Amino acid sequence: MNYAHLSLVAVFVTVGLFSVASAQEDDASGFDFDTMDDITHCSDPQPNPTLIADPAFPAVEPPRCSFNHHGQIEVIGDGVEAVHYFAEADDVTWHFVTAGDPANPTIVFIHGLPDTWFTWHNQIAALSDEYYIVALDQMGYGQTEKSLNLDFSHPSMAQKMTAFLDEIGVDQFHMVGHDRGSVSGDYLLNELGMDARVLTYVRMQQSFNEPHGEPRPPHDVFGTARGVVLFRSSQTIAGSYTVEGGYVATEIPQEEYDRLEYEFAIEGTAEAVSQYFHTTNFDIEEDDRYDFLFKRMSMPVLILQGALDPGQRPEEYENSLDFLMNPNSQVVILETAAHFPQSELPDEVSDNIRSFIQANS
Prior knowledge:
Layout: H1 26-29, E1 72-76, E2 80-89, E3 92-99, E4 106-110, H2 121-127, E5 132-136, H3 154-167, E6 173-178, H4 180-188, H5 194-197, E7 198-204, H6 219-222, H7 225-232, H8 235-240, H9 254-264, H10 269-276, H11 282-293, E8 301-306, E9 330-334, H12 341-344, H13 346-359
Parallel strand pairs: 4-5, 4-6, 6-7, 7-8, 8-9
Antiparallel strand pairs: 1-2, 2-3, 3-5
Helix pairs in contact: 2-13, 3-4, 7-10
């Protein structure tokens, strides 16, 4: 599919998606919510897909507006075959992509906001030579279930993600999270026995032992009708993935930008993602880390951060190792990356993941 013709021209938003600030009024936030565009879409499945001859998982009905087929092969990177699948677990139909040999150690990738599995396509291509890759769409994102009847609280999400991993036969694995995916990874560790199943944890672009700096993403707006309007607009990706927006330090390829926009604009995503922020915010998550989540991080943890992220500065992580039990944990700061290092410095991120896993295997 040619994603470029499906995306609208991005609207540049000063200081990015997170410039909404915590204020609720349009004149204070810098946005006119009444005039935002709406780029959401519901596409039919792609015609004439290339399907894997022997699917690794039984077929299930994909959620509405899914454009990939169960067992569809997508070639990424330098000829690496990734396979799209759907699986049902705990009342959720999940979309996920696999690559590599299932006999190899498993890496599970968990994306953040405003992303899908595709944010990891460079890492999937780079690491599938030695590892079996599972990259999922989180609940409400991409081609995973978006029903508003689901419970989007962190404990429920962690329970359902555990059920999904059990369903597809993933036992022990290395975990990589980015942004809200790191938050999901934190809470996943609180599931019974999960701290023993996760062998290493690469935790990217999320606050840890210090409060989130300014500018602070406005969770109080994200969880409202205005947040839905914002998530449905082209301004979400424009504010995240352009140098002008401040959250990438180098421009990403246009084809990648178009694909990211296309996937986040799938109908129902905005409404479902907003649900997460009905029950959480940075303060709640920080309290939970101190109360019980730090205690679950018994495995080696790599905190991998871009130095140029405007809201998460390197000094916030100077004492982070004091809160990690495993002596093999590390903090690595990528000096020329901002909030999306997996897109800005794909090779460097892949190398750091590989080196950390190898050093702790």
